[in-house]
Design brief:
Radius of gyration of chain A: 12 Å
Strand content of chain B: 25-35%
Number of strands of chain B: 19
Structural class of chain A: mainly alpha
Low-confidence stretches of chain A: none
Low-confidence stretches of chain B: none
CATH topology of the largest domain in chain B: Aminopeptidase
Oligomer: heterodimer
CATH class of the largest domain in chain B: Alpha Beta
Distance between the termini of chain B: 37 Å
Distance between the termini of chain A: 21 Å
Largest interface: A-B, 26 and 24 residues
CATH class of chain A: Mainly Alpha
Strand order of the largest sheet of chain B: 10-12-13-14-15-9-16
Helix content of chain A: 40-55%
CATH architecture of chain A: Orthogonal Bundle
Mean pLDDT of chain A: 89
Number of strands of chain A: 0
Strand content of chain A: under 5%
CATH architecture of the largest domain in chain B: 3-Layer(aba) Sandwich
Largest sheet of chain A: none
Number of helices of chain A: 4
Chain lengths: ~80, ~375
């Protein structure tokens, strides 16, 4: 499974209802699509699978994780650092 | 589904109490008492800062802001910084944008009243992450330390893994047999607390406030601890407190222990929520008396604002740091939110102190609804 599809699946499994026409630049957090438990589940997944030790308090979560494209970029940056 | 954000009105109180069975406790009467205590009897502000989400005229989400009064630099200058808490969304309405809407509405209403900052000292992990996504910033973690009795950790770990219905029933039965919970031994042993020491179930608010006022303070940010605040604060219906006093020609020290009574909290844990003394010897005497008389299974406190001698004392008495990793490590952290958008780029300061550096705070668990 691609990283993109894995991210989408984690978000949906967390309870978020993604629109059928979801594109990678659609706002998820600032639009309210991704909040509450789905956002929390996503943070756990990122920490467990992609970027262990990620400190959520050191960056603007609403900005840097707001779209699938931004999430992929975030993961890529952290993967390179690792 | 169509959602509507509305401010608190008293007609909605029964629905709030029902909604909070998902967070506060499953006991509606206890929730009603907690609501009245926290929002109606609050010494600083009424319930009007609460924001609610309605769906088909039913309350499905809440974000509270209750009154908290802080001091910094100079004890004569007081600063009102409301405390955001009690965030809950009914399970059927989660992950539909309700959480961020009600959080933003709460911030907007508090800003409209002219308050520059708000704080949150007891966000759970979901609320913590949701807060970060809506403009809150973390000032740091509380540096918890725990003291487990020698036999308990393996047993507790085993029981913690057994999240079965049978374990739940066993726990309820145990709680029913031991209504004082982890205070049972302390209460039974209170006759052995003699000399300058005494154990009480109620605060001596005026004397405690007078002691706090006469002890040195370095000007870091702390909650006001006057008699009115202390008399109100220890009335929390979700908590039970014990007060260990040291008298020698007047009150020279106190140590406040707290346990949870809600069925949604860890009822086996005891917290040291406040602790003051006019000397290190008295401070040590209070702690050792509490440990000897209480023989608590699990005792917890924060050390982020503790002096070096206090940290050493706690370590020597068997307290150890057990900070979880990752997101869990931040579940107890201090959150701050700037409300006045006009000053968005200005430093987040209260007096001469940075709100975003936890070292600039003189924090006690008492200031948090965790304590």
């Amino acid at each position: 499974m691609s990283l993109r599809n894995a991210l989408v699946r984690v978000i949906e499994d967390g309870g978020a209802q993604l629109p059928a026409d979801l594109d990678d630049h659609m706002s998820l957090i600032q639009s309210g699509i991704l909040d509450s438990t789905a956002l929390f589940e996503l943070t756990l997944w990122v920490e467990d699978h992609v970027a262990p030790g990620t400190d959520l308090t050191t960056f603007d979560l609403a900005e840097e994780w707001d779209t699938i494209a931004k999430l992929l970029a975030f993961v890529e940056r952290h993967a390179q650092r690792a | 589904m169509a959602y509507q954000i509305v401010p608190y009105v008293s007609d909605l109180e029964p629905q709030i109490i029902e909604l909070q069975t998902h967070l506060w406790s499953r006991d509606a009467a206890r929730n009603a008492a907690y609501f009245r205590w926290k929002y109606v009897d609050n010494p600083y502000v009424d319930a009007s800062l609460i924001q609610l989400t309605l769906c088909s005229r039913r309350v499905v989400a809440m974000r509270g802001m209750f009154g908290a009064m802080w001091e910094v630099d100079d004890p004569t200058a007081r600063h009102f910084m409301p405390y955001a808490d009690d965030f809950v969304v009914a399970p059927a309405h989660r992950n539909r944008g309700v959480a961020s809407q009600v959080m933003q509405a709460s911030v907007a209403e508090t800003a409209r009243r002219g308050f520059p900052f708000a704080v949150s000292l007891s966000a759970g992990p979901v609320t913590f992450v949701g807060s970060l996504a809506t403009g809150w910033r973390s000032a740091g973690a509380y540096q918890s330390v725990w003291r487990d009795s020698a036999w308990s950790p393996p047993l507790r770990r085993r029981l913690d893994r057994l999240h079965t219905r049978a374990y739940g029933r066993l726990k309820l039965a145990f709680d029913a047999l031991h209504p004082a919970g982890p205070f049972a031994r302390l209460d039974r042993g209170s006759r052995h607390i003699t000399g300058p020491l005494s154990l009480r179930r109620a605060p001596r608010a005026a004397e405690m406030a007078a002691l706090v006022a006469r002890l040195p303070w370095d000007g870091r940010i702390r909650h006001v601890r006057d008699a009115d605040y202390l008399a109100w604060r220890f009335g929390n219906p979700l908590h039970d407190y014990r007060f260990l006093f040291w008298d020698d020609g007047g009150l020279q020290g106190y140590l406040v222990l707290q346990r949870y009574v809600s069925d949604r909290a860890d009822r086996g844990c005891v917290n040291i929520v406040d602790w003051e003394a006019s000397s290190e010897a008295i401070r040590t005497g209070l702690l050792t008396a509490a440990l000897r008389a209480g023989r608590f299974t699990r005792l917890h406190t924060w050390t982020v604002s503790a002096s070096e001698p206090l940290r050493i004392l706690l370590r020597d008495q068997g307290f150890v740091a057990v900070e979880p990793a990752g997101v869990q490590a931040r579940r107890g952290g201090l959150l701050v939110r700037r409300l006045d958008a006009a000053n968005r780029d200005a430093p987040w300061m209260l007096g001469s102190r940075s709100l975003l550096r936890i070292a600039e705070w003189d924090l006690r668990m008492l200031y948090s609804m965790a304590g």
